[in-house]
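Troubleshooting log. The previous structure file for this entry was overwritten by mistake, so regenerating from the original sequence record. Sequence copied from the archived sheet and checked twice against the printout by T.R.
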Amino acid sequence: MASEPTKTVKTRFVIISDTHTAELRPSDDKSHAYRDPLPSSDVLLHAGDITIAGYISEYESMVDMLSKADAELKIVIAGNHDVTLDEPYYEKIGKRKFHRNMGEDLEVVREMWTGEKAKKAGIVYLEECVRNFTLRNGARFTIYSSPYQPEFCNFAFPYFRDEDRFNQYAQNPIPDHPEIDIVLTHGPPDGILDQTSRGDNVGCEHLLRAVRRCRPRLHCFGHIHEGWGAQRVDWVQGHSVSLPVDRQQILDNRCAYVNLSQDAGDNPAEGRSKPLTFGEETLFVNAAIMDVDYKPVNAPWMVDLDLPIA
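Regenerated output below.
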């Protein structure tokens, strides 16, 4: 059953992932949606793969970009390429694999994302956890985050496909509905915006089970560059629909836009659709900026949602 609170407030999210240290294109480059500045929002979400290989210089560039973004709150998780943020992995494998044993200073890396400079810029770095936030517009939400994904080419934050990180017996399971509003993971769930250029679905079946049980308003991820897009899933009716996008509108607006708040109306051409019903539906967004050739041709996503008032 739906469990939407009586009092809500429209809240805007801008979602990006898999930036791989790509700087925003100049503002007058109308051939790219990923250009300066990022669209304004209440909350900016970055679903990991911030960098190519976790160098301090790469993080510096991305912290600078995020600091300039017009958003009250900027939530960031790591991905498999952010090897220096997975400290046990880096000491065991990553330093030798990526940095030829020279090594980056892991304390400096962590300070960049959790220190005073990041906090003053509104940046909040999350690991695998559940956190609550309250915004200036009165909205409150609970987010589950995880940088982990099924093992991939011996990169960071891996788990074996037969390991369930997200359900009942996991160390940090995703809570049941209605505890979670937003799920932010680096990897996708099985069968949802997870198809590679070879036609393989490589998302996690355990994550899908957890999200089906949790039924958040929004689940954001990246990792599979070819899977960029948004899909609206109706858990009650058992069907899903991919959201249409207009290439020219995306370029003009610097984002793909969908309005699922109470004032949405029903005009897909303007990014509007019927309001999302919490507990019955989830919007899934793969926000990978890079395409399969590591070119920043994909657009950020902008999503308007109703959140409960604190």
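The chain has a mean pLDDT of 95. Archived copy saved in two places this time.
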